[in-house]
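Dear support,

I submitted the protein below through the web form. The confirmation email said the job was done, but the results page showed an empty box. After a refresh the structure appeared. I'm attaching both so you can tell me whether what I see now is the final result or a partial one.
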Amino acid sequence: MHFLKKTLGTSPLLARVAPFVAFLVLTFCQGQFSAASAYWFYFAKTLVGVWLIREMWPLVPEMRWAISWEAVLIGIGVFAMWVGLDRFYPQFKNSVVWNPHTQFGDNSALAWLMIGTRILGSTLVVPPLEEVFYRSFLYRYIARPDFLSVPLNRFLPLPFFATAAVFGFSHFQWLAGILCGMAYQWLVLRKNRLGDAMTAHAITNFLLGVWVAWQGAWQFW
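What the results page shows now:
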């Protein structure tokens, strides 16, 4: 366990990129082995993500939660935009249909365990890992390889739009993802810290998770 922290501590780049890549590998494994693996890999990924954040925490000082009225409004607004735009543009096809009720039995305890894990994971684990990678590392690295020398509140057109595009196209709802990436990046620029974007991201994902479970809108997962 201490070996990982020691390894990440050898490079600011490694501390911000390696945990995200590990999380991405586990995401890719979801559904690759069996239909049930989509759920069990997410469960495992969430636990691994908690551990990765714990190891990163002392090494990435900007990875600290912060709350503001802007973060709350952006979080709610992005959720509304994500759901509202869904019918109006072509999206990437998701080969894995996530519906725990179908896989484990309608309203079964295991189905609700997976739904709860997904909501908690997307709310508390995904935002720190993704915001550190996209907003702290990638945005600044596109500007300059010595990325730590680039202030978080410096607006740079190419990194701004490139980071939003990479973030957006990593989601099936790519257009909503691009707009979402711009909104979170604006928060970082405005507040000169990462924590507000983490909070907005968490609010969006939590509301989206509740919406999915309530409405059965599984296409968002």
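Response: this is the final, complete result; the empty box was a page-load delay. The mean pLDDT is 94.
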